[in-house]
Each structure stands twice: as structure tokens, then as C-alpha cells.
Amino acid sequence: MNAIKNELIKKINSYPDSYNKKEMLDRLVMDTKLEESMKEYQENGALSHDEARRMIEKRQTALRSGKILL
After folding, report:
1. Minimal CA–CA distance to 49: which of 31, 70, 69, 57?
2. What is the pLDDT of residues 16-58, one digit of tens each?
3. CA distance linking residue 42 with residue 53, whole number of Å
4. Please, are residues 19 and 46 in contact by the beta-carbon 8 Å criterion?
5. Where are the domains of the chain?
6. Distance CA 65, CA 69 (A)
């Protein structure tokens, strides 16, 4: 997982300055925090795998659309 994130960070940093790199990196951080939270819930038996995945997807959609902030 970390290797993938490192590749994404390199790719984002290679974009021209006209791109909003900070926003892209912020979203990557938010997605990472969401996945870690859901894994923790799942490990504690509070959620099934499917429930965790649905919650992650729902939250990511809301974050990307700007409806909620962390």
C-alpha cells in the first residue's frame, strides 16, 4: 500500500504547477485516513468487510464532492 501511495505522490508532484497539487495530496491523505479507520472498525468486529467498503466509498464520494470536511 505504501509503495502505491509513494508512486501517487511522485506522479502528483510531477504535474505542472497549474494543477492544484496540494488538493490532490490532501485527498490522498484523507483517503488513507478513511481506509485506516474502516480497517480498525472491521478488526474490532464492528463492521463486516462489505459494510466497511460501502462506508469508505460513501465517505470518499462525499469528501471529493466537497460535502464534508475532516
Report:
1. 57
2. 877 787 777 877 777 777 778 777 877 777 777 788 778 778 8
3. 10
4. no
5. 2-13+21-64
6. 10
